Automatic annotation (TrEMBL):
Ranges for domain NADP-dependent oxidoreductase: 18-327
Lineage, top ranks: Bacteria, Pseudomonadati, Pseudomonadota, Alphaproteobacteria, Caulobacterales
Pfam families: Aldo_ket_red (PF00248)
Organism: Brevundimonas variabilis
Entries under PANTHER family matching the protein: NAD(P)-LINKED OXIDOREDUCTASE SUPERFAMILY PROTEIN (PTHR43364:SF4), NADH-SPECIFIC METHYLGLYOXAL REDUCTASE-RELATED (PTHR43364)
InterPro entries: AKR_Detox_Biosynth, NAD(P)_OxRdtase_dom_sf, NADP_OxRdtase_dom
Keywords: Oxidoreductase
Keyword Iron appears in the UniProt entry: no
Cellular-component GO terms for this entry: cytosol
Protein name: Aryl-alcohol dehydrogenase-like predicted oxidoreductase
Amino acid sequence: MSLTAYRTLGRSGLVVSPLALGTMTFGPGAWGADEPASRSIFQAYREAGGNFVDTADIYSGGESERLVGQFIKETGSRDEIVLATKFGFNGSASPLTTDASGRGNPHAGGAGAKNIHRALDASLVRLGTDYVDLYWMHVWDGVTPGEEIVQTLGDLVRAGKIRYYAFSDMPAWLAMKAATLAAERHVPGPVAIQVEYSLVARDVEGEHFPAAKEGGMGVMPWSPLAGGFLTGKYRREDLSNTGRLSGANPFGQSKFVDQNWLILEALKTVAEELDRPMAQVALRWVMQRPGVTSTLIGVRTTAQLAGNLAAADLELTGAQMSRLDAASAPTPGFSAALTAPAIRRMIFGGNDVWGWSDQGTRN
Ligand SMILES: NC(=O)c1ccc[n+]([C@@H]2O[C@H](COP(=O)([O-])OP(=O)(O)OC[C@H]3O[C@@H](n4cnc5c(N)ncnc54)[C@H](OP(=O)(O)O)[C@@H]3O)[C@@H](O)[C@H]2O)c1
């Protein structure tokens, strides 16, 4: 599989690469890449055949969007690139911005119509374009009704300011409700969900993956290397000065727990067997999981990018996948436990019954 092994994102005609370039690292910041480094990363991803670039209004206080827009302009590649950005977090009082002090404007965040229009107009200016291909709700605000979100984003599709929209970091029920509302109203609906997903973050398999499948939404994992943890560069005995997770970062140091160190051991064994870096194997495991459409990679250097892109040419055998699946198996949540094979056999008189929603997971 190369970066030109294109596929559509969810039930849509949007054609994307299996690895998308995340640009959260573009711009200033302790774990960021400066302008020349960001440009080199962008160019290397493009030269490898990638067409899917993901940014957000909040990344580096807007600098990531500005750099992405500039690189697209410099390379004249607007028509070839699927440009995705996000709204939702509040730029006026965010821990990610340097001027975070006290409270900000409540209208500068959230999924209400007022903020979405404001945020998109500001993003278009920074990106230097008059439309985005994919507009993500970065995070649900917990208050805006699904009806309003579908209405506002559908209107923006009809206005030609965005081509498609999708949801990141939201409850599965909300994504499914929006998809259902849109289908019933015959208006544009969400085409994808973006969730944290890796060997050490699998709880989204319980509700989000089935919702995405039922709702015609592609799954786009973020932090497939758990912020760098799955590269194997962190040592349990000494966590200092190794990378992003060693210092202050919005994701904290939550990866350093007993269970994850055990998963890392299993990953190391498979990587040694294949004579490949752990990062490639971890990334490839995400790419090969059923339901995953395009995986977001994040890098700080071109060397990291080159190493990680090689995951596109790696193939894990069924046995290797199974070993990694078993080592990282999440505790089944309520829904997953209810739909376990043993319960289904109880329901169907001891028979194994294979349903439509099992397609792709059983044969
Ligand atoms: N929707 C959301 O809420 C959300 C949240 C997070 C991210 N995202 C998106 O997902 C993208 C990827 O997320 P992520 O950056 O967290 O992904 P990740 O792949 O889990 O972590 C990337 C980081 O790991 C380290 N790394 C990567 N490859 C490496 C290698 N080969 N060797 C050693 N270290 C390596 C680098 O950090 P250091 O070198 O600094 O240690 C790099 O910045 C982001 O750019 C963004 O577009 C979305």
